[in-house]
Write a structure and sequence with these properties.
Main location: secreted
Number of domains: 4
Pfam families: NDNF, NDNF_C, NDNF_N
Structural class: mainly beta
CATH architecture of the largest domain: Sandwich
Number of helices: 6
Largest sheet: 7 strands, antiparallel
Subcellular location: Secreted
Shape: elongated
Protein name: Protein NDNF
Strand content: 35-45%
GO molecular function: heparin binding
Number of strands: 36
CATH topology of the largest domain: Immunoglobulin-like
CATH class of the largest domain: Mainly Beta
Distance between the termini: 98 Å
């Protein structure tokens, strides 16, 4: 029969209050007007459930009200209200009605009005109010029956909050308990790691099976609740599993998420244009080393203690740390005319540095991209003089002063390994590579294809050079791999002798006529072939034309 007295008297209370409102002359005093407003609030309020977390959605500048009543007959009835903002700061307050208005005795009308006003203003009082986005708990005690009104308001934008009311303090807590010192300690910082430790929650020590710690890492700021963190992640364009803290089930993952399971730890990494947010749940361990961070970057760390049975959580006091700066990369000296072959690890995305000190005013840098994709950045005495993505063969002719210091930095722009050949030399130095034609493409003539032969053509130059043609039989499913994995710096020495077709010399002073063709015979009908042409210059270092795949006719 809990709260039965309230339901019995509520109609009478509302009827009396309504009559009282109509009997008051408007406007008379501020107290009377306030009383009218308070009565109006009850008509537009909802009952707040006891012992259950309630999610409340708030519209901007529109207050929302809930009420609850303490049970009659209990001496010093305790209660608590916990409010968790899930986004922007909100305003909320608790008002208490400790007595009901009574009917005044007949008599002088003015005296009766004053008496009503006095009783009306004395029946309501504000016992708590708060403005902010922190999780706040109000704990109260009432010695007699009372009606309580909770009012919530968001002035920034539409948002949502969670509210937990309980009048039963003997059967445990919905929220896990935080230790007396809820701070997170940073006990180790590296270039790509940060090690954290925190005091154990009493709840984790008592209920190890139903409690776990979850860590959230991001580059923006700390979050005061798991609810606020999830809201921020969703608003940035990423989607979280609705039961993140409860189960972290793989089937709840969205396309923007990556899940990693190792050593009983479950991590979810949310990727978006605004950055990366990681959540890691590690059971009841109270230390953790966060791996794979970026050097010289500030990160924010939040630890939440989560009740797996109720999905309720409590937040430790967040902290932040900046990873150490990456050590200066080793610098390789470039010498005049010497070719350096550099292999770059795409996964680490680190710069490879080459240094060259000029002994002449005019300097010539040559880059031959062998595999993958690479970005080059060249500085002279600390100032940028060139920066671009490499493609094929690239020359940079730079003019400066004697003893200028050039720094060449190379970085792979894809996850797979990349490689490049680099040469620095004076402008008059013997060129490393041969004179190149306008295009390194190989052309095939469809009309000249037969079952046994293919005709190809390629451009030459005004300089007499040696050209060697190679062929290789391949299957349909090998085309992409052959074209993508080819090492464009490798020469004929890497090919099998049986693949060689011929070598020839040619040139033409008229570039319009510097074209040569070759018909490759002795092929099989309906078969795919990969053709390569190598150009050799005075230095003997070859340049490989772009590979060409041609299929012979099946029937002739």
């Amino acid at each position: 029969l809990k709260m039965s007295w309230f339901w019995l008297y509520l109609p009478l209370y509302l009827l009396t209050a309504t009559c009282l409102c109509h009997s008051i002359k408007a406007p008379t005093t501020s107290s009377q007007q306030s009383f009218k407003t308070d009565l109006f609030n009850f008509y537009h309020s909802l009952i707040l459930a006891d012992g259950k977390e309630t999610t409340i959605h708030l519209l901007k500048d529109i207050p929302k009200r809930y009420y609850f009543v303490l049970e009659e007959g209990r001496f010093l009835a305790p209660f608590s209200v916990t409010v968790t903002p899930c986004d922007v700061p909100i305003e909320w307050s608790i008002l208490v009605y400790r007595s009901l208005p009574t009917k005044a005795a007949p008599g002088d009308h003015d005296t009766q009005e004053a008496s009503k006003s006095q009783r009306a203003s004395s029946m309501v009082s504000t016992i708590f109010n708060y403005k902010g986005n922190s999780v706040e708990t109000y704990m109260g005690m009432s010695s007699h029956s009372a009606l309580y009104l909770l009012e919530f308001l968001s002035t920034e934008r539409d948002t949502h909050i969670t509210v937990y009311l309980t009048t039963d303090t003997t059967s445990g807590h919905l929220y896990p308990e935080l230790p007396a010192d809820p701070r997170i300690d940073v006990i180790g910082i590296g270039h790509t790691t940060v090690t954290l430790a925190w005091k154990h929650s009493p709840s984790a020590l008592q209920h190890r099976e139903s409690i776990q710690y979850c860590l959230l890492v991001n580059e923006k700021h700390n979050y005061k609740s798991l609810c606020a963190a999830e809201t921020a992640i969703r608003s940035s364009g990423m989607k979280l599993p609705p039961t993140l803290a409860l189960s972290l089930s793989p089937y709840l993952l969205e396309p923007q998420q990556v899940m990693i399971l190792s050593n009983s730890e479950l991590s979810i990494i949310n990727k978006a244009s605004s950055g990366e947010v990681r959540q890691v749940c590690m059971g009841t361990r109270n230390t953790y080393t966060v791996p794979n961070l970026s050097p010289s970057t500030q990160y924010y760390f939040d630890v939440f203690i989560v009740n797996l049975l109720t999905n309720a959580s409590a937040a430790y006091t967040g902290t932040f740390a900046r990873t150490l700066e990456e050590p200066e990369p080793k610098v390789t000296e470039l010498k005049d005319g010497k070719v350096v072959h550099v292999v770059l690890d795409g996964k680490k995305q680190k710069f490879y540095s080459l240094q060259y000190q000029a002994r002449h005013k005019k300097i010539h840098f040559t880059f031959q991209l062998c595999r993958g994709q690479i970005r080059v950045h060249i500085t002279r005495n600390g100032k940028t003089v060139a920066s671009e993505n490499l493609s094929g063969l690239r020359y940079f002719s730079l003019k400066g002063k004697l003893l200028d210091t050039y720094l060449v930095q190379l970085r792979s722009t894809e996850e797979s390994n990349s490689s490049v050949k680099v040469q620095a030399s004076p402008h008059f130095h013997k060129p490393l590579f041969p004179l190149l034609p306008e295009s390194l493409k190989i052309k095939s003539f469809s009309k000249l294809r037969t079952c046994r032969s293919v005709t190809i053509a390629w451009l030459g130059t005004q300089e007499e050079s040696k050209y060697c043609v190679y062929r290789k039989r391949i299957e349909e499913d090998q085309i992409w791999r052959e074209l993508q994995s080819a090492d464009r710096c490798s020469g004929p020495e890497s090919r099998h002798k049986s693949e060689k077709v011929l070598c020839k010399y040619f040139y033409d002073l008229n570039l319009q006529r510097a074209v040569t063709t070759e018909t490759i015979k002795g092929l099989e009908a309906g078969t795919l072939y990969l053709f390569d042409v190598y150009l050799f210059g005075p230095s003997g270092i070859p340049v490989r034309y772009h590979s060409k795949v041609v299929k012979t006719r099946k029937k002739c």
